Amino acid sequence: MNKWSPRFLAIAVAAAIAAPAQAEIAIDVINGSEVSLEGLIQADGNWFHNDVQDLNAATPAGNDGKDSEFEMRRAEVVLKGKGGSFDWTLGYDAKANKYLDANIKWKLGTDYLMFGQYKQPNSLEELSSTRHNDFISKAMATNLFGVARRTGIAYGNDTPNWGYQISAFGRELTRNLAQGAGYGGRFYWAPMNQTGSIFHLGVSALDYDTDFDTQRWRVRPDADFATVRLVDTGNITNTDRIRTIGAEAMWIGGPFKVQSEYLTSRVNRTKATSAGDFTGNSWYVYGLWNLTGETWGYKSGVATTPLPEDPAAGMWQLGLRYDATDLNDVPVRGGEEKNLTLGVNWYWRSNFKFMVNYVKVSSSRYSSTLRREVDDDPSILEARAQFYW
Q1: pLDDT score, position 62
Q2: Which stretch is the leader sequence (predicted)?
C-alpha cells in the first residue's frame, strides 16, 4: 500500500485553518449554473490484535506485516454545478485513482432523469455521504452486497415523504473496476418527517451479470486496511446473474438515531454446472447518540448530518453497531462473522472530523485442511482524521 505523506496532510490542515469554515467553495456562475468545489481528505490508522490469522499479513498485499497500518484513505475533489433545469457533478479520488460521481441530472419538478456515473439504488449506508459515515468502516452488509457507482441512466422522484429511483447500468467509469450490466430500483417512505422526528422505511432490488462468469463474496472484518478476509466463499464458477434484495429502516428522535439494513444476494449458476445456486446474507443495526444535542435532517431518502451548534466545542457522537454475515450455503462454506463496534465521533467547527472505533470480531469458517470449523476472534482499534470542505 502507498503510504500517505505527512507533508501533504500538514499542508491540507494549514489550508483548512487559514480558510473560512464552510462546506464548499463557490467558484463562479456560468450560464445560470452555480459552480462550486468540494473536497475530502481522510487519514486512517488501524491497530490489529490478531487471534489466528494475521489481519495485516505482508503477502500478497505487500504490507510490512506489522500489527498497525497508517495510510491516506481518501483524497477526493468534486466539482459541482447547480441551477436551472440541470445539475451536474464531476468527482475524482486521487488516492484510489478513480472517478466518483460523474453525471448530469435533468430536473423535472420533483422528478429527475440522470445520465452518467452515480451510486446505484441500493443500500442506505452506501447512498449516505462518505464524509458523514457514522463508523470508520461501513458495515459488512454494505461492503459485501452494496453496488456503488456505475455508469447508466436513472429515473426517479424525491418528495419530502417518499421517493423512488429505477436504474439501468453497466460498468464503472474507471477501467478495470466493477463490471456487469444490470438494472434495479429503490423505493422509500417516510411517514414521519419533521425536525427531530423521522421514521424511514425502504426496499431495494438489483439484478446484474456476474463478472467473467465468476463470483467471489468476501469482506474485511470492519477494518478497511486489513489484508485478510475471515469470511470468503472463494471463486464460485459458472455463474450467470446476481440478484440482491434489501430492506432498510431508520428512526430519528431528537439526538438519537437507530438504523438497520438487511441484504441478501443470490448467485444464479448456468446450466453448464450441476452445482446449485448460492445465497448469502448480511445485516446490521446501530444506534447513534449526539451527546451535544443536535439532530439530523432528511433528504432524498437519507439522513443528513448537521453542523455543530457550538462550532468551537464541536459535536460529539457515541455509536454502537452490531453486524453479521453468513456466507455458508452448502456446498460453499464461506463462513460466518459477527462484529460489535463501539465508536466516538467529534465534528469540530465546519471542516474537521475525528473518529475512534473499537471492533470486536467473532468469526467461524470451515478449514478443508483441518476438516473442521476454525474460530478466529481478533479485535481492532481504528482512528480517522478528516478534513472536508
Answers
A1: 58
A2: 1-23
Q: Could you state, in order of their start, the residue ranges of all structural domains in the chain?
A: 45-55+124-388
- Are the C-beta atoms of residues 206 and 184 closer than 8 Å to each other? yes
Q: Domain 45-55+124-388: which CATH class?
A: mainly beta
Contacts for 271 with CB less than 8 Å, ≥ 6 apart: none
pLDDT the model gives residue 355: 98
How far is residue 130's CA from residue 123's CA, in Å, rounded to a whole number?
Answer: 13
Share of residues in the chain with pLDDT > 90 (%) = 82
| Among candidate residues 132, 12, 228, the one with its CA nearest the CA of residue 4 | 12
> What backbone torsions phi and psi does residue 143 show, to the nearest 5 degrees?
-70, -30
Average pLDDT, integer, range 169-179: 94
Residues sharing a CB contact under 8 Å with residue 245, sequence separation 6 or more, in sequence order: 203, 204, 205, 263, 264, 265
Assign 3-class secondary structure to 110-159: CEEEEEEEEECCCCHHHHCCHHHCCCCCCCHHHHHHCCCEEEEEEEEEEC
